User: Which sequence fits this backbone?
């Protein structure tokens, strides 16, 4: 979704698609109207045993903005992202990132897996990517 599309999240999907009612209810119960934090979306997915992508799609169809990406890539105010390059990246994490690249980019899922494997924050892994000049692709919620 580009900046010019902001606020028209349902436009990413087919016009006939409707929000899943079960997911919609959970989103309405767990969030403030109009936005859903990344962590909350994943909590909802786990709670009702659906994929994160399904929660992201339902949020889009509800015209909710995805905020506070756990990798620090989007959804923070006043700026967009909070991730910063790592001053002294762990060489083992750098190697894990390099080994997980697909077409020169790291997937969101792979970044999460690396964070788990090395017991570091997701923000640390995205910071390593920033240091290495690498992009993260394929948001699990469908934001990018």
Assistant:
């Amino acid at each position: 979704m580009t900046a010019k599309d902001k606020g028209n999240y349902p436009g990413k999907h087919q016009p006939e698609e409707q929000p899943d009612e079960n997911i919609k209810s959970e989103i309405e119960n767990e969030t403030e109207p109009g936005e859903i934090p990344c962590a909350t979306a994943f909590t909802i997915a786990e709670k009702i045993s659906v994929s994160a992508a399904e929660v992201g799609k339902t949020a889009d169809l509800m015209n909710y903005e995805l905020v506070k990406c756990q990798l620090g890539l989007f959804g923070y105010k006043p700026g967009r992202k909070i991730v910063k390059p790592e001053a002294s990246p762990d060489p083992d994490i750098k190697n894990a990132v390099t080994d997980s690249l697909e077409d020169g980019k790291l997937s969101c899922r792979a970044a999460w897996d690396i964070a788990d494997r090395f017991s570091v924050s997701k923000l640390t892994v995205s910071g390593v990517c920033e240091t290495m000049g690498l992009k993260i692709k394929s948001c699990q919620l469908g934001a990018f």
In short: The longest strand covers residues 35-37. The radius of gyration is 16 Å.
